[in-house]
Batch of 2 targets.
Target 1
Amino acid sequence: MKPRRARAKALSRDALVRAVRRAQQRGEEVVFTNGCFDLLHLGHVRSLEQARSLGDRLLVALNSDASVRRLKGPERPLVPARQRMEVVAALECVDWVTSFGADTPLALIRAVRPDVLAKGGDWALGEIVGREDVERWGGRVVRLREVPGMRTTALLDRARSPKRRAGPKRRKA
């Protein structure tokens, strides 16, 4: 089977709703997860792989640039939304990528009506946006495992720190 180009996985809201409906009509279970994915790291990869294992298709919704700025501050995102979407879409476990401009993906969750809502384990079950809606229509909500020490903010803080560890010292020849 020929692999799909990453950009082909990035869908508008309307196209995404149609794709999800077709998949669900075929009996496929659709998993929804979301986040900023500003600096893709091992924690993201493992969470996305775990989310994909919960169903047949994985939809990843990314916060728009304006949404990331409101949530994380004026210096973020480091990477523009279109680039973040393409990088996330390039992962084999991801079927579809979209973005949303609100502070939460609630309207998108309600439009898509996923079978599974997956969110990072750092979120308490009661704090997961869309949980009540997904459970109301018979879906399930899953908290994903955390990878200790793998948080974008922590990685950025470490990179910005003047005390950051340098790589191995080179010997003079």
Note: The chain has a mean pLDDT of 87.
Target 2
Amino acid sequence: MKIMMVWSLVFAVFLIPAAEARQTVNGCMIKRRASCPGADLAGANLTKSNLAGADLAGADLSGADMSGDKISEANLTKANLSRTNLSGANLSETYMNSANLSQANLTRANLSQSTLPGANLREANLAGANLSMANLKGADLTGVNATGALFAMSSLVDANLSRADLTEATLIGADIRNTLMEGVIFCRTIMPNRSINNSGCQR
């Protein structure tokens, strides 16, 4: 009987975090494949939530804490993610067309194969982020911190990288046709043709 009670307690302990992870915020159930287009989730604490495959198109997630979240294959088209904490989040294969990610914290986030044409990433923190094979066509990356970021095979066609910090970033195979690069910091930067650009290193 005591053994059964102990196992019941252990089982309950594991169930509590799972139940807490499925919180409801302004009518939106925070769970995998949630359907909450246009939801108001501004400033919400959604750390380590599983929103993979969720429909959050047009949602207001400004200032929310989504660090460590699983948001792969989700729809964040035209969503407001300005100043959102997405550090360490998995945003691979996510649709973020025309999304607002200005001043967002995307350090070490996985955005590989994500779709971000026309997205606003002004002054976002992309340090150590993985943007390999991402579609950033026409995106505004003015003033981003992309130190150590990976842009391998990504599309930066018509994008704005003015004043971006690309120290130790990797752009192997990236498409940079018509990309604005005024004031970009290049230091130990691996360029699309695999050459090393140290023009911005301080001496």
Note: The two ends are 72 Å apart (CA to CA).
